[in-house]
Amino acid sequence: MSFLLGPVPVHAMVATRLMNDTKEQAEGRTLVVAPSWIGDAVLSQPLVARLAAQRPASAIDIFAPKWVLPAYGRMPEVANTIENPFGHGQLALGQRRRVAHDLARQGYWYAYVLPNSLKSALVPWFAGIGRRVGYTGEMRYGLLNDRRPLDKQQLPLMVERFAWLAQPAGSELERPVAYPRLSVAAAEFRDGCERLELDSPQRLACFCPGAEFGPAKRWPADHFAVLAQQLGEKGYAVWLLGSAADKPVGDEIARGSGGSAINLCGTTSLDEAIVLLSGADLVVTNDSGLMHVAAALDRPTIAIYGSSSPGFTPPLSDTAHVVKLDLPCSPCFARTCPLKHFDCMVKLDPATLMQQVAAFEGNDFNDNRS
């Protein structure tokens, strides 16, 4: 049957059971269809925590692309992570039906669909999950049976938009929304250093020089290199973390740092990067997924903004500080500087960041390695 022809009969049957069987409803499993970006995945943690608190007997499983699963593996509220094998733009109706058939065996009562695409709502619908919650997006009529309009004025932050899905439709968001949190045991940092053949330093600064959206979100490599050299003189070990795509800029920073920085971009898995970040005394990062990881680990974080804005997805931690110049031309939200001068990043010099480092050093932050 085509998904365009309306719900299959199992949906009506499950919906009736949801209304009539409160105990099974409370204990039935929950599936969260997760976003495809690491930062967005981290920002969904407060939703997961709220669902866990509401229905403590209901196991929460995550259906997500392979590359974001490690972030969910660091959320204690998550029971299982399941790989979403579908690429961006891939419809693959037959394969989605097969995946949904396997998921239907798990007995899910609830599905929370966080991406706004039609395709992301297909698997929960095919699986016959009784209550399918999400925002309207891409004409998902019928695929979601708790389909909500998005009030951007009432919910200005992405973390709030995710968290509100845990509440009844029409209710006001219960504030405050807790900051996202990821869990790493102290011993894991020591074990991770040993596995990666890294000496566990007395003082550690982690730099995250990448940003997937484009070069306009990246602080210049020579600025990172100068900052690494200055931190090295203060006794910090400096590790560069990122994906394989960030390795070239990592090499450039390492070369320019006079030996102060070690380039680990592309040599660690996401989970290993999370573990290493958990032991950092300082994180300096572009607006990226690893920025949100560092904030969720509650590490002292300097988040650098130029072409983008912290107004929608800021780093959420009391130990995170946003640094930006607020030039008339920024934020422009462009992948590359439309004016060709890149002043929002070039004029944000290492000395400005060293001032924030000094402010952090004047505070007594928790050492996750102890």
Name of the top-level CATH class of the largest domain: Alpha Beta
Largest sheet: 6 strands, parallel
Q: How much beta, percentage-wise?
A: 5-15%
Number of strands: 12
* Strands ordered across the widest β-sheet: 3-2-1-4-5-6
Give the name of the CATH superfamily of the largest domain: Glycogen Phosphorylase B
Which key features would you list for this structure?
single chain, 370 residues, alpha/beta, Rossmann fold, 2 domains, 6-stranded parallel β-sheet, 15 helices, 12 strands, 35% helix, disordered N terminus
Present the secondary structure layout.
Layout: H1 9-20, H2 22-27, E1 29-33, H3 38-43, H4 45-54, E2 60-64, H5 69-73, E3 78-83, H6 93-104, E4 108-113, H7 122-126, E5 131-135, E6 146-148, H8 158-164, H9 186-195, E7 204-208, H10 221-233, E8 237-240, H11 247-256, E9 261-263, H12 270-278, E10 282-286, H13 289-296, E11 301-304, E12 320-323, H14 343-346, H15 350-361
Parallel strand pairs: 1-2, 1-4, 2-3, 4-5, 5-6, 7-8, 7-10, 8-9, 10-11, 11-12
Helix pairs in contact: 4-8, 9-12, 10-11, 10-15
Word description of this protein:
- By secondary structure, this protein is an alpha/beta fold.
- It folds into two domains: 3-164, Rossmann fold, CATH 3.40.50; 186-361, Glycogen Phosphorylase B (Rossmann fold).
- It is built from 15 helices and twelve strands.
- The chain has helices spanning 9-20, 22-27, 38-43, 45-54, 69-73, 93-104, 122-126, 158-164, 186-195, 221-233, 247-256, 270-278, 289-296, 343-346, 350-361; strands spanning 29-33, 60-64, 78-83, 108-113, 131-135, 146-148, 204-208, 237-240, 261-263, 282-286, 301-304, 320-323.
- The strands form two sheets. The protein has a six-stranded parallel sheet with strand order 3-2-1-4-5-6.
- The chain is globular and about 60 Å long.
- It starts with 8 loop residues before the first helix and ends in a 9-residue tail after the last helix.
